[in-house]
Amino acid sequence: CIHATRISLSIGFVTTACSLLAGGILGAIAGFYGGFRDSVIMRLLDVISSMPSILLSLTIVAVLGTDIKNLMLAIMVSRTPAMARVVRSAVMTVVDTEYIEAAKAGGTKDVRIIIRHIIPNSIGPIMVQATMSVASMILQAASLSFLGLGIAPPTPEWGALVSSAREYLRTDTY
To answer: What is the SS3 assignment for 122?
Structure first.
């Protein structure tokens, strides 16, 4: 069980980092520019988040195959819209401040404004969401492994361990 923690935690942290990166880029672009770009990005993310995340992950893993990389990709894709929404809302609260207007008036490029000014000043809610999503990503990976669509059986993982011990749950008493 302790050895399986290594796999489960690495899945949780890696998928959180990847979904934060992808959602951060999409959310920052949508929140900073607004208008048509915001509408297109958010409607595409609405399409992704219209399906339950476990069902979307099941579909992706079933199509791509059961591998740890495919499992992480499936979880990352299903959780990216939530990250993008948090980043977008955090960026939208900072983008209307005076120092951002001063940076734009000074001729600073948009990418530099986003990286140097907006993201550092909106990192609080983003880090809270990222920290809380680690647990849900671990649970999603364990759910997929429990169903047989996660990590291959010789590799210990929490969902696979529970699945292999399923027959003993009713009969084993301490």
So the answer is: coil
Q: What distance in Å separates the CA atoms of residue 55 and residue 58, rounded to the nearest whole number?
A: 5
3-state secondary structure of 155: coil
C-beta of residue 159 within 8 angstroms of C-beta of residue 150: yes
Helix axes 2-33, 123-146, angle to 10 degrees: 130
Chain centroid, CA 151 distance in Å: 19
- Contact, 80 vs 129, CB < 8 A? no
Q: How far apart are CA 123 and CA 113, in angstroms?
A: 14
**Tens digit of each residue's pLDDT (9 = 90 or more) over 17-50:** 999 999 999 999 999 998 899 999 999 999 999 9
Does the reported pTM lie above 0.90?
no
Task: Report the distance separating Cα 149 and Cα 132, nearest Å.
Answer: 24
Share of the chain above pLDDT 70, in %: 91
173: DSSP letter: -
CB 127 within 8 A of CB 133: no
Q: Are 141 and 148 in contact (CB under 8 A)?
A: no
Model confidence over 69-87: pLDDT tens digits?
Answer: 888 999 999 999 999 999 9
Distance separating alpha carbons of residues 64 and 14, to the nearest angstrom: 19
